Amino acid sequence: MRQLIEQDKEAIEGFLKKCVEYADLSIQRKMERGDPEAEISGWKSYREFTAYSISELKSGKLDDWLEGEGAEALPHGSACLQTGYSKEVFSEMQHTRRVDLLGSNMGPRPVFLVGTESPAGVQNLAPMSSISVLSNSPPLISMSVSQNRGGRVRDTLLNIREGGVGCKVSIHCLRGDIANARDVNAAAKDVPRDVSEWSLVSGSPISDPSGDLLSTAIATISAEVVELRQLPDSSKAFLVIMRANSIFAIPDSDKPMSRLVQVSNGVLSGSASGSNWKFNLDW
Fold this sequence. Notes:
This protein is an alpha+beta fold. It is built from six helices and 13 strands. The chain folds into two domains: 76 residues; 181 residues, Electron Transport, Fmn-binding Protein, Chain A (Pnp Oxidase, Chain A, Roll), CATH 2.30.110.10. About 4% of the residues have low confidence.
């Protein structure tokens, strides 16, 4: 029986992996065509749910389904608002509870290392999971940045504030593996502004007129700041709007590959199908 179950699992996993690959390609095509965000979002949800199903299958949690002895048809997916719900008001929550709820319900989010330069010429590097595409034509990207948990304004924000419109920003896309997760953890450390986080990560800078590239990244987007605005409701965060000028990528980068994502507050993982590792940030 066990051998048959493992064979079934391999076949199902192979099928689900193809579904994830097809979803990745479909999302890319739709983004390139400028399709509505609502349609793209649906595909992203499908893709992440399918990838999660693979991790559940590999973990053995679904073995009882294959044995035909499961008491519940959908033990992880049968609950919905129709079966009951509770209400929590964000403004009445503690900060940590708010972070956990927003992150768990709106993640996973890609994690990037973002490079900026201080007026003194110090190259800073910081992890960001708040980057998203605002517009394809023109190519505009947004990033929300504020202060760290200790209340210190992030060097990235200081550099952009002082650099103003036209300030260069390098956005490094990371492969979903432990090495890059460790680099994110290292770059998240609270170090003096005159210390470059480049000295803390495993990768090294590759100099280019458009901006420094990270040797261990799978792609680097070179951008420049076009607008900086403080968010409303007494928020300490600022919205940075950037124009993407160019992208540096490895050959065949249009093929699906694992990307580093934040699956919950302070937890990183890989977005590829079958990714079953977790890395807890120490910050």
